[in-house]
Amino acid sequence: MPIEIQYTEDKIGVVFCAVGRVTGEEIIAAQQTIHESDGFVGLRYWIVDRSRCTEYTVSTDEVSQIADMANKAAKRNPHLLMALVSETDLQFGISRMYEAQIDANGFKTMSFRDRASAEKWIENELGQSLP
């Protein structure tokens, strides 16, 4: 499966891992699943981890659609932190493009080159250690 979704035991976090070949269509479907979940409004952080992604095929239109979905979902959960882990230049560039399209009142979003830095940022923002 190209997208693995894992919720933390305490249900305040979700980790969205892209594995192998991933398309924009698959990301959109997985993101919609999270937005529509019963626990979405209780989430405090979301980590998008692309470190195991070998091929990332997402168009600029799909990035805009993903950002639009996030901006709409932020009305239900405006305090969500989103950390984007992107090890390749292409993924990092797409993350920055996404970040630029998030509304000022939307998810607080940051791009990182590694998961440890993303987790540290979330811990600092939450004022607590991650499980």
What does this structure look like?
With about 130 residues, the chain is of the alpha/beta class. The protein has one domain: Transcription Regulator spoIIAA. Helix content is about 40%, strand content about 30%. It is built from four helices and five strands; from the N terminus they run ββαβαβαβα. Strands 1-2-3-4-5 form a five-stranded mixed beta sheet, sandwiched between helices. Helix 1 packs parallel to helix 2 and helix 2 packs across helix 3. The longest helix has 14 residues. The protein is globular, with a radius of gyration of 13 Å.
Concise description?
The protein is of the alpha/beta class and 131 residues long. Helices cover 38% and strands 30% of the residues.
What class would the helix/strand composition place it in? alpha/beta
The name of the CATH superfamily reads STAS domain
Instruction: Give the number of DSSP strands.
Output: 5
Number of helices: 4
Task: Determine Rg (CA atoms, Å).
Answer: 13 Å
Strand fraction band?
A: 25-35%
Query: Which segments are poorly predicted (pLDDT under 50) over 5 or more consecutive residues?
Result: none
What's the SSE pattern? EEHEHEHEH
End-to-end span in angstroms? 25 Å
The side-by-side strand order for the widest beta sheet comes to: 1-2-3-4-5
* CATH domain fold name: Transcription Regulator spoIIAA
How many separate domains make up the residues?
1
Q: What's the architecture, going by CATH?
A: 2-Layer Sandwich
Q: Rough shape?
A: globular
* Main beta sheet: 5 strands, mixed
Please tell me the overall pLDDT: 95
CATH class: Alpha Beta
Helix content: 25-40%
Assembly state of the chains shown: single chain
